[in-house]
Amino acid sequence: MASEVKTNAPHSTTGGTAASAMHGDPTRRDFITTAALAWAGVGGAIALWPFIQQMNPDASTQALSSTEVDLAPIKEGQAITVLWRGKPVFIRNRTKDEIEKAKDTPLAQLPDKASENEANPGASASDQNRTKPGHENWMVLVGICTHLGCIPKGQGLSDQRGEYGGWFCPCHGSTYDTAGRIRKGPAPRNLDVPPYEFVSATKIKIG
Amino acid sequence: MSDHLSTYEPKGAFAKWMDARLPVMRMMHGQFVDFPTPRNLNYMWTFGGILTLMLGVQILSGLVLSMHYQPSDAEAFNSIELIRRDVNYGWLLRNIHAVGASMFFFAVYLHMARGLYYGSYKAPREILWILGVIIFLLMMAAGFMGYALVWGQMSFWGVTVITNLFSAIPLVGSSITKWLWGGFAVSGVTLNRFFSLHFLLPFVIVGVVALHIWALHVVGQNNPTGLEIKTKSDSVPMLPYAVMKDFFAMAVFMVIYAWFIFFVPNYLGDADNFIEANPLSTPPHIVPEWYFLPFYAILRSIPSKLGGVLMMFGSIALLAFLPWLDTSNVRSAKYRPMFKWFLWAFFFSVIALGYLGGKPAEGSYVLWSRVFTTYYFAFFLLIMPIVGLIETPRRLPNSIMDAVLGGGGPMASGVAPAAAEKR
Ligand code: HEM
Ligand code: FES
């Protein structure tokens, strides 16, 4: 087919003889066909982009990205769960004992040694790196098990908290300590600390 | 088989006129009336027809359900209660569809087991088999998204756990989950897109089924002996023989189906799914629908997150490679004394994994899941290639006809007119 086009085309003066075309060397026509197909491929890929991109979180979902929470009613030892971007956020007012336990844990015992806290990227998973200075009693965590997304138990006073006194995921048995760090079970990472800041002594803004 | 000579004769002026323009009747006649089917097919060959019927049933019942269903966070759960209580015959249509999904999977598992036992995946049926694996994957996607639509606790947390599997992928994992959810967690946005896809997928399945049947009619059906049709006497025309047998099997299947619909419609469901989805509380024990349990058990038996995900998807993907993993040139396990027992042990493992997948992931349940997961993979990756090389198969009959008459060659050749069919 290609060689036939070649011999019949009077304007194909350069780019080899009819003989070379017969030996299977690419002709100009082959080049144009390939280039046109490649260009159409690029166009197709670009046209596909909006169809893929529409599935990402939309503007209204992105806009709901911060929540303010009043901490005053939460007594020591109590915890509440709030919704932030459709995800539960655990806020626990830890007891002295719970804070001590978290501080005394040697880093070497942690399966995940990273802080998992956007505020302290690259830092170690020490208790200090997962809380705010001066507010060490407050543990703020995204309440989603880093294994497959269940919500761990441990917010309610009567909940099972697992052997490390933090949170326990009923789905496949991941156990977190009082700083929300994974200690046992299939979850690969510590519970995430969401971005938040203290806007006053008793109020935080998440997001 | 596609080159067999059809006896189609258009009857009447209109049929002749049509035949010269769109010979669809000629094609149907050739493919579904005088199409040669092996004369020794057993009832395991009726599930293809049953599956086609079930696909039709799901599409029809799904279409009418979608006239009443509301794919939104606020309304989904209520709209299904409305279907069950207020819509005329809604209770029936809903049960047809929900039980139908289970019956569909029940039939597909038997259909696949048939293929494994009689070696239907071997040359020249590789493409036919791979198309089947693709249909199975599409069915799993359709079933998973359909279950999400109920928007009960088990729907919601099932979707959460399964979509989170993708977060195990290094680097891009969390972008993929966000993209799937259309948000930062499973939400009504996710439900809405699952509804669109759940509506679409069955029609994609129809397309792949058409290719599957086309491929079947090019290479012809396998049969319990695993031999090809050699002479005309090895086969019977599809109508009435195979068609009547299919209809009878469908009728029996429908009786069982109806029993579930009318007497125990919720038997295969989960009590937690009668509680509306609550993103703030996870039920204590998450289990998928029964037809996913063996794969769920494989997922949970691996102590690493990424490893578990890879093994689970791998266990299905592996099926597509069977034609090349099996080194024996005898098709049917009937004539493979060693392979046969390994295969029964494999069937047992899959059922055992199904049982274990429904139990909590602790103690000896995990241990046994690991044992059976190991056998599952060893069966495909070690036993299939090795047994094919070392086993001595039993002597095969000369032809399908011989196998049916149970005798040796001479008697059969006396009966058969032996009009050799050219292939
Ligand atoms: C391959 C075929 C199909 C399969 C395997 C399938 C599977 C399922 C499953 C497992 C459910 C949840 C059942 C329950 O517990 O209530 C479901 C629900 C639903 N499906 Fe399908 N389906 C199929 C085809 C379709 C089609 C073609 C449509 C629409 C045209 C559809 C529309 C719906 C709707 C509206 C619901 C929600 C109502 C309900 O749950 O009863 N389905 N489907
Ligand atoms: S989701 Fe928490 S342990 Fe699996």
Give an overview in words:
The complex is a heterodimer of chains A (207) and B (423). Chain A is built from five helices and nine strands; from the N terminus they run ααααβββαββββββ. The model of chain A is unreliable at 1-18 (pLDDT under 50). Chain A has 207 residues and is an alpha+beta fold. Chain A is elongated, with a radius of gyration of 30 Å. Helix content of chain A is 25%, strand content 20%. Chain B is mainly alpha-helical and 423 residues long. Chain B has a domain at 31-286: Cytochrome Bc1 Complex, Chain C. In chain B, helix 3 (47-65) runs antiparallel to helix 9 (188-219), helix 3 (47-65) packs across helix 10 (238-263) and helix 11 (293-301) packs antiparallel against helix 12. The chains are: A alpha+beta (207), B mainly alpha (423). The A-B interface holds A 52, 55-58, 61, 81, 83, 85-88, 144, 147-151, 169-173, 186-188 and B 157, 160-161, 163-165, 167, 178-185, 187, 189, 193, 279-282, 284-286, 300, 303-305, 308, 361-362. The complex binds protoporphyrin IX containing FE and FE2/S2 (inorganic) cluster. The site of FE2/S2 (inorganic) cluster has 13 residues of chain A, from loops.
Instruction: Report the order of strands and helices of chain A.
Output: HHHHEEEHEEEEEE
Low-confidence blocks of residues of chain A: 1-18
Identify the bound ligands.
Answer: protoporphyrin IX containing FE, FE2/S2 (inorganic) cluster
Strand content of chain B: under 5%
Unreliable stretches of chain B (pLDDT < 50, length at least 5) are 408-423
From the helix content, strand content and strand pairing of chain B, which structural class follows? mainly alpha
Content of β-strand of chain A: 15-25%
The main sheet of chain B orders its strands as: 1-2
Briefly, what is this?
Chain A has 207 residues and is α+β, with helices and mostly antiparallel strands. In chain A, 25% of the residues lie in helices and 20% in strands.
